[in-house]
Design goal:
Number of helices of chain A: 22
Oligomer: heterodimer
Strand order of the largest sheet of chain B: 3-4-5
Radius of gyration of chain A: 33 Å
CATH superfamily of the largest domain in chain A: DD-peptidase/beta-lactamase superfamily
Largest interface: A-B, 39 and 51 residues
Largest sheet of chain B: 3 strands, antiparallel
Helix content of chain B: over 70%
Shape of chain B: globular
Largest sheet of chain A: 6 strands, mixed
CATH topology of the largest domain in chain A: Beta-lactamase
Radius of gyration of chain B: 23 Å
Distance between the termini of chain A: 119 Å
Number of strands of chain A: 22
Strand content of chain B: under 5%
Helix content of chain A: 25-40%
CATH architecture of the largest domain in chain A: 3-Layer(aba) Sandwich
CATH class of the largest domain in chain A: Alpha Beta
Number of domains of chain A: 2
Number of strands of chain B: 5
Structural class of chain B: mainly alpha
Number of helices of chain B: 18
Number of domains of chain B: 1
Order of helices and strands of chain B: HHEEHHHEEEHHHHHHHHHHHHH
Amino acid sequence: MRKSFLPVLVYLVGFIILIRLINLQIFSKKYDKLSIKNSVLKQNIYPERGFIFDRNGKLLVSNQPMYDLMVIPNSLKSFDTTELSNLTGMEMEKIYENLIRAKKYSIRAPSVLINQIPKNKYAGLQEKMWKFPGMYIQRRSARYYETNIASNILGYISEVNNSDIKNDSYYEKGELIGRQGVEKTYEKILRGKKGVKYLQRDKFSRIIGPYKNGELDTLPVKSNNVTISVDMELQEYGSMLLKNKRGGVLAIEPESGEILLSISSPAYNPNLLVGRQRSENFKSLKADTLNNILFDRSLQGQYAPGSPFKVLNALIGLEEGVISENDKFLCNKGHFYGNNQFMECRCPVGSMNNLNSAIHKSCNTYFSNIYQKIINNSNDATYGTNRWSSHLKSFGLGNYLGYDHPVGQPGFIPDGNFYNLWYPNQKWSGSTIVSNSIGQGEVLVTPIQLANIAAIIGNKGYYYKPHFIKAIDNYDIDLKFSTKNFTTISSKNFIPIIQGMKDAVKKGTARIASIPGIDVCGKTGTIENFTKINGVKTQLTDHSMFIAFAPCEKPKIAIAVIVENGYWGGRWAAPIASLIIEKYLNKKIKRSWLEKRMVEGSLQNEYMKVVSNKPFTINE
Amino acid sequence: MNKLTRFDWNSLTVYLLLCTIGLINIYSIGYDIDSNTMSYFNFNKQLFAFAISILLITVIQFLDTKILERYASIFYLFGIFTLITVAVFGTEVSGSKSWFRLGSFNIQPSEFMKIFVTIAIAKILCDINTKIRRFKDLFFCFIILLAPVILIMFQPDAGSAIIFLFLIIVFHSEGMPSFVLLSIVISILIFLLIIIFGEIITVATIIFISIISIIIQQKKEVKNILNSLFLAIVSILYSLSVNFIFNNVFEQRHRDRFNILLGKEIDSQGLGYNINQSQIAIGSGRFSGKGFMQGTQTKGGFVPEQQTDYIFTTIGEEWGFIGSSLVLILFVFLIQRIIKTAYKQKNSFNRVFCLGFACILFAHIFINLGMVVGLVPTIGIPLPFISYGGSSLIAFSIFLGIFLRMEFERTN
């Protein structure tokens, strides 16, 4: 008994420790994770974000160095916070706050004290760094926009939020993601793929070498540059013309579907959304509900199409066989329709218009008549409206066009069902919904859709999906952008329409848009519009609209311009469109008087009426 | 040649294996956290101590162990003398005056005192006149044992002091009445009960057990019942005094160690940090370990005192369960072998000495391994043959050398 006490005790203790080891090392899974959490630091290596060029190879977006001031709390000596605050432009309270946070994280490992110090502050800070022991400057990359316009096209990048991380496991906290425009659409191409480096750190969070000799590390994949179809010079020119006016302009190269420019006015400088001031600037942009700057009028603005829509009705009329080119309709400054209602027209009493003159004179009576014929053809308004609707939809209306930009609106094209629901207890016919004939009914379109309509007419019946992309290094462009989309209108029916639009510029409503030496086809529009002021539906000055393409044969550019509350089409939209066309095709502007009028013209008074809280008159 | 085959090669092999494991891991922990570089200074020192150890073991094989018996008292008194001088002239390292400085070496007398006390106890117990059952002789034995314990407590180095108490097991093995060992075990149990559950439950438990024992006693004589009552009262008084000692005599750091181990306090920054980090190191080694020099806990310096008291964490982390269980098995094998052969010794001095060696070795394994796996409170003692520290390695090597010599003498 005495002799066995010690051996038994040794075995017992040995056994207990063995069990404990089995438990710790074989059954327990948590220690593995705890040790990794302790000592492995995952460091990402980011490839430089790809550049963006315009169609002529002009650099639009590059990267700029930004600087983070890093701090190692335990090598810190007392320093002058006021001076640091002045040098970096960071408030003192924020510096204190970050310092406390850094100390909490680790007193021996570096943390960011002041982030995103811009280039211009860097030099001054660098010079005074000797005054701040325990701190050093770390370079990082930020976006640099070489232009101060086109923010609606280029978009911006910002730090990922929780839902981004949830949606795409690639992203980690603090990383940047394309938020808008080209930056968003081509995010994966522009960002490349980050590499990962696993580092081992010690108990003070200092790096002591690679983890597992770098076995788990991955190399970053280079990013690619993107060339967009936009002509930046043209974009700049257009932006200048739209100064002090609200509106959207969009131009397409009809033979390729490439978007030549996309202007939304007013606009913001894309560099506002870079750097430390980003969130503040973004907030104030967002807060400006009056100008609605973040709203891209060229892609998101939904407007009644107005007179340009007449040409579509003409095309449908021809295709449906309800009219022929030479059918004439009498106009007496308008006409009576339906239940003794009268639609006004600018044509003098006794006018007899055929298709050509109806287009270039923009005769409401003519289009009212043919529209009712389209709808009432086969004596079934629902059927007629559906036919009409599906023709329009073949132009890409009433739906997203499928272009490569994250924002957009579908617009609206009603069909038979829509009116059956609208007039449930009532028989309706072409005369009920006759406003659609002149583009003032329920139809809504966006400037890009209007520009695409111009491109389709120029192409005599087909279009390529409009797109911003022109080329990507090492990648092909989506095939959908090089596929022809045909409308349901046969090619021959476009010929009289093109002629009508040509005459509209030559001798009709759009004479202001004519350019010496260039055949321009165009159609003006003057769009009635309403808003609610204190809950009361109020009519505002008409929108000025114009669609055009040029030259009329084999057009190089198709364009839509809308100037909000600019009154008639020929007043703002047509001159702006024609100046842009002239600039694009001739590179030089001969009509400098017109250019001057556009650049200097302002509609700010018009826009202030709405918020003035005073009664006002419109269409002055 | 015949003689050489009788030499205990097995124990020597285990010894060499353990020392090699120690050297490999000291090398691996060479990363110096403060200068951020690898430092082989400690490894080289340990290698030097290992060389001296081998030399000493070899020399001892040519000596007669009778010398130890003959000069036991001189060794003992020399040991006591060094303990007193270290208390006066010693170098203070992290709060303890336990070392003599000799150039770049520090010598820790308490390590060698383990040998001297073992020799002294062997000498007393093997004396034909000593009857350990007698209270007087037992008392003398305790005096011999407790004198160095008290001196070492004053350094203060409670860890080393506790080791000596394990020699009581030898007293028991040599005939000390079982009730003495039993009362010691019971006092430890009551002590733990008090700390874990508090005095009310403990006292209630004692009363409950006393009543049960009185009821089941077959001879219900007054004397037996009085005995039981007496025992119960002593236990209760002891319980109450434990609480007093724990709260008033113990220092806060001692209390913390107990409280953390017993799960009464959760403290991942302070003392609990050590226990937590050493368990992370061992646990993250999993079955086969992270590999030589690959331990992230080791490299990052997360575990304190890693070359000395916590060296087992590196073995666990870098060599996994395979490595840690191998070390455990080697130790158990060695201790059992020493015990087994000790009982075969006809020479009672040699028997008691070997048993004493086994007890001290066991005490170290029990406390050190128990501590790093989180079963025993933090008590700073090295892992024999493995931990960095020349005094410890040399002292244990001398112990082993003497054991090997005695075993050689026995078989020849």
